[in-house]
What does this fold into?
Amino acid sequence: MKIVHNPDEMQNLCLTYRKAGDTIGLVPTMGALHDGHISLLTAIRQQCTISVMSIFVNPTQFGPNEDFAKYPRPFEADCARAKENGCDIIFAPKPEAMYPQHYATYVNIETITGKLCGMSRPGHFKGITTVLLKFFNIVVPHAAIFGQKDAQQVIVLKRMVVDLNCSVNILVAPIVRETDGLAMSSRNRYLTSAERAASVALHKGLAAAEKLYAAGERTAEPLIASVAAQLSKSDMLTPDYIELVDTVSLESQTRLTATALLAVAVRTRETRTRLIDNTVLGGCL
Amino acid sequence: MKIVHNPDEMQNLCLTYRKAGDTIGLVPTMGALHDGHISLLTAIRQQCTISVMSIFVNPTQFGPNEDFAKYPRPFEADCARAKENGCDIIFAPKPEAMYPQHYATYVNIETITGKLCGMSRPGHFKGITTVLLKFFNIVVPHAAIFGQKDAQQVIVLKRMVVDLNCSVNILVAPIVRETDGLAMSSRNRYLTSAERAASVALHKGLAAAEKLYAAGERTAEPLIASVAAQLSKSDMLTPDYIELVDTVSLESQTRLTATALLAVAVRTRETRTRLIDNTVLGGCL
It folds into this structure.
């Protein structure tokens, strides 16, 4: 497994692979790898001859009061884990190589980035679209894979890829969960044991909504209410949003007529950790 | 010469050329071709095995009160001229293919686009960076060439290419002028004969400044004043700006210590046509 830090070196390497007829698959991560990330690596390896995992805690997608500084960076362990799982190349640029002096260019989606997580994280998706467009230019992947857990990120990136004519295939992998149902996240390690115990409510609520949907429920209100009911069982979780939205426009739906995303975000009481989870009803992203 | 309208078809074609080992050169234009455009085509043909000229009057780079509707579109004549001059492919997408329903993504440079032409044309450079990034993704060129006449556009695009890690080489070709010195522009056809006669003042003023510079002048004020003096000889031209700026930051310079751009923009009295011209002192873009 190669480890590359320099963006120009990475770009030259990937262009050479392309010329040689390889297909390149990209797994963008911020490191602190868990089984969810590994599932992405495994899936991309089945589609491409060269697997690239980027490990980059991207400063531009963090707000001023967010957890950029404390975000975990266990780089050696991440590399070992990626290597064990068949990764061909780790791309781990330094922030100053990605955003050098005079840096001033941003990619922004002017509609759907203000909704859901965008409401409480202004600028977050602008940071994501910008860094991903850079990665797409550096790694020139045929495919890039993302977890459904970050559903809005997937929807935003699919919009960007269509709008900017990026020749990369966006793949989406299912959410990987802990045995009690909590969606895996690098941020779960922030949780106190009380918060960790309470946080299973997100999945429980979504599972209850899925059951209602399977029984024929197509009105938003009871689907949302079943998530809210689970969250309210503990005082550890403050809902940020519970919404049923269209999977392209992210517009709120009052009745389900097509595929819709039921998404939830909460903040925990003790560590102010933000947790998200979702389910897609009637289709996939 | 092929003529391609569909962006996906164009992208597939260009990716195929790339795979076959061709080098692709792009000449982005809005059509209404003049000798300046042809000089770009001739130059790119010396560098690349496949020459692509895009012809697209890009709506997103025009302000609401600008000349988008009346901008000349002599498509047949342009194609004939391009073919005569050895162009391999014309890429002429429809606006609705470039900006389909739900389109929402823009590339923006948050610093240097507010200066010079950006002051009187808000959003202009955002439209340019967005459409050029799309073209770079569709045509996947090894090189793209632009005329020095649009100096700020060149500086903005070089910034974008560095910032977003685009693997395209930005080439700059010298300004091509009419016999009396007026820089060629598709907008020159808007001019009345009185405006046309007066408009030579832009080049005369810049040439006078170049002469001063050659004689050792390094202070901004007299260099700018020599342009202003020429413009003031006629009441047909209202200066929009005359500025001496750094070629990277576009910051105003009071004394010349490195390469600098002396740029001028005017509006004509009768047809309200905007004319620009420039010279680079002490180097090149």
User: Anything to note?
Assistant: Residues 186-277 of chain A form a domain with the Pantoate--beta-alanine Ligase; Chain: A,domain 2 fold (CATH 3.30.1300.10). The CA atoms of residues 61 and 177 of chain A lie 24 Å apart. Chain A touches chain B through 34 residues (CB under 8 Å).
